[in-house]
Amino acid sequence: MIIDAHCHAWAHWPYQPPVPDPASRGSAAQLLWEMEQNGVERAVVICAGLGGNPGNNDYVAEAARASGGRLIAFADVDSRWWDHHHAPGAPARFRAELDRLRPIGITHYVDETADPGWFLGEEGDACLALLEERGVVLSLACGPLQVPTVAKAAERHPRLTILLHHMGRPRAGDGAALQAVLAGAARPNIHVKVSGFGYGVEEGWAFPYAPMQEVARALRDAYGADRLCWGSDYPVVRKFMTYRQSLEVVRSLCPFLDPAERAAILGGTMDRLLTRASSRGR
Known about the structure:
Elements: E1 3-7, H1 28-37, E2 42-46, H2 56-66, E3 71-76, H3 90-101, E4 105-109, H4 122-134, E5 137-141, H5 147-156, E6 162-164, H6 175-183, E7 190-194, H7 210-223, E8 228-230, H8 243-251, H9 259-279
């Protein structure tokens, strides 16, 4: 079983420069086609209401309903592109979106250079407590140096599952950033997506990203394969590589993984997290 733990779908292509096919390049139909061609059974679609897509939560929720269980929507709540990001009243906004969409997971993007103290403050703590209470997975986009603060928040909420995006976002060769991400392994409820290989190197086209494979190895050593999940980052990943390459960089080109570890990262870990989230009341 292969489960894509991190991909996107948009009604309109959100990035610059403009593309000739903005209505289809990021569509759910394109994602499902790529999954079919590459033997991917299910995919977690990380909603992101950016770039002229304020209704992305609803677009992805409808695509998930129509997919027969192949797509799982993680709603975008209070991410950095919204005017109300981390403004007072966040717990009420979190609760309203959870009540409206009933997701098994949400995503929350923060400014990777900002002070992460919000997570430990009254409002941030209340938001995390709500997610923990409802059994909702938190898919979190943060910077590597913010991970130690996130780990403190994870300690306060041990039943909250946190999934860090794109290996925690360290760049190859940045030892301090990598060590900050590895420190998060002390909290058993923090998991990491093995995705975003192209973000961590100067030449994003330089497949198969040997320096980032070493980052993936360090994550395996610290977290264990049962806390790592593969993600394609499709369709954004097309900037760097094909969907097939995003899969093979883990399945075929990380020689330090044994078959059991590879199976966990490619689907076993995410299947367990989704099953657990689905079984809890939301």
